[in-house]
Design goal:
By secondary structure, the protein is an alpha+beta fold. It folds into two domains: about 110 residues, no CATH class; about 220 residues, Cathepsin B, Chain A. The protein contains 14 helices and twelve strands. Strands 4, 6, 8, 9, 10 and 11 form a six-stranded mixed sheet that branches. A two-stranded antiparallel sheet has the order 1-7. Helix 1 crosses helix 5. It is globular and about 65 Å long. About 20% of the residues have low confidence. Belongs to the peptidase C1 family. Pfam families: Inhibitor_I29, Peptidase_C1.
Length: about 425
């Protein structure tokens, strides 16, 4: 019966492929078709079917799916041998997606996977070409990046003291306000300092919105301040995309200035390894010392390392940058709400390769992977946080294009022992 349901799903999909021209004219995506046919049929299939997925390799409808996939993502291969190899990887990935979505439907997984432009790549190849973060052996920035002769532990202790002192001041202020309210109801003489909206934007006391502190701290979402999500391509330049996006978002948030910084300048000219990776701290230091970067319009991205070619114009100069203590997600939350987007890092997994959220109405799109490694290898930008159905999460911007994930973003569990290494770095710019 299970095998019969699989064939029914593939048959339905085959019928839709027969009229795929109509699909394209209606503006529907490949993933929408897959979700409405194969994956919909798969939700009714027993787990016993998983060991029978080999039938996909020789099934004519699976081969039609392959043809549609190539057309939709403009896939062209140089030789028949290469296409045969890619087809094998495509089938392997399709089986993984179907198997894992079984687990989602049974409540064993918090998010769904979806077939995307990386469907013809093995995980090892994907990780090699689509990440690019270099890390020091100590798990922190290289010695050359430590400023003023301080080591990492002292820098982290200083930042920790800053956040602790800030919390103490807020507690003292609340106690004083309550006392003043009892003595002189309606008057708050101590309320003279600046405050922040839930978005992190600083406002004067006279312009403060009438919202409670609980509401203002519940969630942050800076997506409105970010430029459209871009695609790093098959170049290990995630560090360049993460740092520039963090700086761009900070300028938009704090100063209302919009621009796009040149990722290519960082790939070509900074002390990084080009398309073979780079450091977050080193990249911030380069931008600080040079007083900014060239605009993306004058030095556009090329997905490969080229000869450094600088001009005179610069934008996005920062006065300084900082990094939150390793593994301290509360410090990351405070820094995010106070300063703006954070350049961070994550460990790449197969789940991340095909992450697609749930779109199922139950809000289950938070990456929560038990026993996920904390050995980070991919740079990202943390642009928000919140709580969904009782689960804390970070809102993260990626650099694999808008067709990946949730329009280029994803959510990952927060306050779960630095899930997949998300708490390793929290670099922010001071502008």
């Amino acid at each position: 019966m299970a095998l019969r349901l699989l064939f029914v799903g593939l048959l339905l999909f085959g019928c839709i492929i027969e009229i795929h021209d109509a699909m394209f004219t209606n503006g529907r995506s490949l993933q929408e078709v897959i979700d409405e046919t194969i994956n919909k049929a798969m939700t009714k299939v027993s787990k016993k079917l998983q060991d029978k997925l080999e039938v996909l390799k020789d099934n004519k409808y699976a081969l039609k799916l392959w043809k549609l996939y190539k057309r939709f993502y403009h896939k062209n291969y140089s030789t028949p041998e290469e296409e045969k190899e890619r087809l094998g990887k495509f089938i392997d990935n399709l089986k993984i997606i179907i198997q894992e979505n079984f687990r989602f439907d049974e409540g064993l997984k918090s998010f769904k996977l979806q077939l995307n432009q990386f469907g013809d790549m093995s995980f090892d190849e994907f990780r090699q070409k689509l990440t690019g973060l270099n890390i020091d052996g100590r798990g922190e920035t290289p010695p050359s990046e430590v400023r003023d002769g301080q080591d990492d532990e002292k820098t982290h202790e200083r930042i920790r003291r800053f956040f602790v002192d800030s919390v103490k001041k807020k507690i003292k202020k609340k106690i004083k306000d309550k006392f003043n309210e009892k003595v002189s109801p309606g008057r708050h003489s101590s309320d003279t300092s600046s405050s922040y909206y839930s978005s992190g934007t600083r406002v004067r006391p006279s312009a403060r919105r009438p919202v409670s502190s609980k509401v203002s701290k519940a969630a942050v979402d800076y997506r409105q301040y970010m430029n459209p999500v871009e695609n790093q391509g098959r170049c290990g330049s995630c560090y360049a995309f993460a740092v520039t996006a963090a700086v761009e978002g900070t300028f938009a948030l704090k100063k209302g200035e919009r621009f796009k910084l040149s990722k290519q300048q960082l790939v070509d000219c900074s002390p990084s390894n080009g398309c073979s990776g780079g450091y977050l701290g080193q990249t911030f230091e380069y931008i600080k010392k040079r007083g900014g970067l060239e605009p993306d319009t004058s030095y556009p991205y090329a997905s490969t390392r080229q000869t450094c070619s600088l001009k005179s114009r610069k934008v996005g100069g920062i006065s300084d940058y900082r990094n939150t203590p390793r593994g301290d997600e509360e410090a990351m939350k405070s820094a995010l709400a106070t300063y703006g987007p954070l350049a961070g890092a994550i460990h790449t997994t197969t789940d991340l390769q095909f992450y697609g959220g749930s779109r199922g109405g139950r809000g289950a799109d938070i990456l929560d992977i038990p026993l996920c490694s904390k050995q980070v290898d991919h740079a990202i930008v943390i642009v928000g946080y919140g709580t969904e159905n009782g689960k804390d999460y970070w809102l993260v911007r990626n650099s694999w294009g808008e067709n990946w994930g949730i329009n280029g973003y994803f959510k990952i569990a927060r306050n779960k022992n630095s899930m997949c290494g998300i708490g390793t770095y929290g670099y922010y710019a001071i502008v």
